[in-house]
Amino acid sequence: MKKLFIILCISMGALTACKKDSKSVENKLSEAQENDLFTLTGDFIYYADAAVLQTSNEIYGVALDEKMHELDKAVKPYKKDVTDMIKVTIKAKKIKKPASEEGWPYRLEIKEILKVEKPDTIKQDVIKLGN
User: Fold this and answer.
1) Which of these, 39, 49, 77, 86, has the minimum number of CB atoms within 10 Å of its CB?
2) What CATH number does residue 61 fall under?
3) Residue 14 in domain
């Protein structure tokens, strides 16, 4: 019984040691990807000094720089309301936000605007309250 317990402890120790190694490899990969440019498609909005890109599975803050203002000018003709989100495709650098700041874990720095899409006029996914 004592031998079984010792073998079990050694096995568990070996498994957890391997688990830590795989995490460090994954962390190195994600750090390497942060330095690369990503092509992202999502809904973009700039309103009251805040810019956001919402993809199908992530939400990113967007750095308020010259390229972001260029993108905002490109989407303005498609907006009916200031709060409308317009589908765009961009190349951006993903930057981890400082721990001292509020917001989403990553911020995007737009490097290239690839496409601005005309909104689907049939799609009615906004509920507006009338007086």
Assistant:
1) 49
2) 2.40.50.140
3) no
- 59 contacts 53 by C-beta, under 8 angstroms: yes
110 assigned to some structural domain? yes
In this prediction, residue 20 has a pLDDT band, given cuts at 50, 70 and 90, of very low
pLDDT tens for 58-85 read 999 999 999 999 999 999 999 988 888 9
Give the strand pairing for 59-62 and 86-96: unpaired
Q: Total domain count for the chain? A: 1
Residue 60 within any structural domain of the chain: yes
Our CA dihedral for 111, 112, 115, 120, rounded to 10 degrees, sits at 20
